[in-house]
Amino acid sequence: MSLSRAAIVDQLKEIVGADRVITDETVLKKNSIDRFRKFPDIHGIYTLPIPAAVVKLGSTEQVSRVLNFMNAHKINGVPRTGASATEGGLETVVENSVVLDGSAMNQIINIDIENMQATAQCGVPLEVLENALREKGYTTGHSPQSKPLAQMGGLVATRSIGHSPHSTAQSKIWSLVWKQYWLMAPSHALKTCHAARLARTFATSSSVTKVHFAISLK
């Protein structure tokens, strides 16, 4: 039997702590959509089911525990970071969905100049990573118009192509990804891969709920 909305919230609080589980109605409504519905959002019109909660993920352990709980109880999950998407992919179309907000996982793990690679957590804004690289005389080469808002997890999950004149055929996100770190229920195991154009094979999040918690670019 499926869990009630209240039971979902209570168990999430036990898993990650009450301070990381948001149930404020205004926040839930905002998290039921993405920028595809920007005009209705401006006018406070929300017609989709609002999620049961927004969970502010803070570590890979929390990601694993939350995903396993949701998998066990068949709860729909919507991973989210910068929320700059305009395609409707972040909408909570299923009743009592849980939004998995990875924006708090926002550390640049490593910038390896010798091998020309950078690794960042899913919540690192592209602009922050870009600025850190520019200080060293480098760039990601990926430059969508959403750069101030877009974060690494969402860029990879949506296979961002970049819309600015500075984005070339060689600077699409799938051409830059060298390694991904992600979790998918019910396994607790860390999934790591590295290969050319990796994002073409593994990056999309449409078929199952998985969370990319760190990305390496080359």
From TrEMBL:
<dbReference type="GO" id="GO:0008720">
    <property type="term" value="F:D-lactate dehydrogenase (NAD+) activity"/>
</dbReference>
<dbReference type="GO" id="GO:0071949">
    <property type="term" value="F:FAD binding"/>
</dbReference>
<dbReference type="GO" id="GO:1903457">
    <property type="term" value="P:lactate catabolic process"/>
</dbReference>
<keyword id="KW-0274">FAD</keyword>
<dbReference type="InterPro" id="IPR036318">
    <property type="entry name" value="FAD-bd_PCMH-like_sf"/>
</dbReference>
<dbReference type="InterPro" id="IPR006094">
    <property type="entry name" value="Oxid_FAD_bind_N"/>
</dbReference>
<feature type="domain" description="FAD-binding PCMH-type">
    <location>
        <begin position="47"/>
        <end position="218"/>
    </location>
</feature>
<protein>
    <submittedName>
        <fullName>Putative FAD-binding oxidoreductase</fullName>
    </submittedName>
</protein>
<dbReference type="GO" id="GO:0004458">
    <property type="term" value="F:D-lactate dehydrogenase (cytochrome) activity"/>
</dbReference>
<keyword id="KW-0285">Flavoprotein</keyword>
<dbReference type="Pfam" id="PF01565">
    <property type="entry name" value="FAD_binding_4"/>
</dbReference>
<dbReference type="InterPro" id="IPR016169">
    <property type="entry name" value="FAD-bd_PCMH_sub2"/>
</dbReference>
<dbReference type="InterPro" id="IPR016166">
    <property type="entry name" value="FAD-bd_PCMH"/>
</dbReference>
